[in-house]
Specification:
alpha/beta; five-stranded parallel β-sheet; 174 residues; 7 helices; single chain
């Protein structure tokens, strides 16, 4: 079969809620007696569990941290990401700064468009402001990846259905 070269930990549960097992998995998967996959080829996606992000920073692993942000501000994020009530965006931002300053690794932000919820054409500017705030106290040119934006119509769920025109207009603003 084909050799696996990259791994993304996401979905079917929050990886940082299962911290010890995730650390064990990362050790096994990257071991030369295991699959010997470079940690630089592993991404861990979180909804934004600040305690877990800080704990992950202490491990100082060369993985890519991805944050499922999906909103440019607390007002919108509160409606679609319940975790935001516990860890609002300013708290999340502080944890991202800490993670980056400890690991030196860039952070990837994920943003799935939801029609009439977070797909306003003003939101890319708001996202850029959030990204720039991440840079304020960190002395590196670029420590985050550009917003990952789902821009295809998804027909299987009417809540996620989106007109391609609106999606394309949003993406051009990024």
């Amino acid at each position: 079969g084909e050799r696996i070269s990259h791994i993304v930990l996401m979905g079917m549960g929050e990886p940082l809620d299962n911290f010890e097992n995730v650390m064990r998995f990362l050790a096994l998967i990257s071991d030369e007696k295991g699959l010997n996959i470079s940690m630089r080829n592993i991404s861990l996606s979180t909804c934004g569990l600040v305690d877990g992000i800080l704990k992950l920073a202490e491990e100082n692993l060369p993985i890519t941290l991805s944050i499922s942000l999906h909103a440019p501000n607390d007002e919108i994020r509160d409606t679609i990401m319940p975790v935001n009530h516990r860890y609002p965006m300013d708290t999340l931002l502080d944890a991202c700064r800490k993670y980056q300053s400890v690991t030196g690794r860039r952070i990837s932000f994920e943003y799935a468009l939801i029609d009439s919820v977070n797909n306003s054409v003003e939101n890319p500017k708001r996202c850029d402001k959030f990204s720039k705030r991440l840079l304020e106290k960190v002395k590196q040119e670029r420590i985050y990846h550009k917003w990952n934006i789902a821009h295809k119509t998804i027909f299987c769920n009417p809540f996620w259905k989106m007109e391609l025109k609106v999606s394309a207009k949003f993406c051009r603003k990024c």
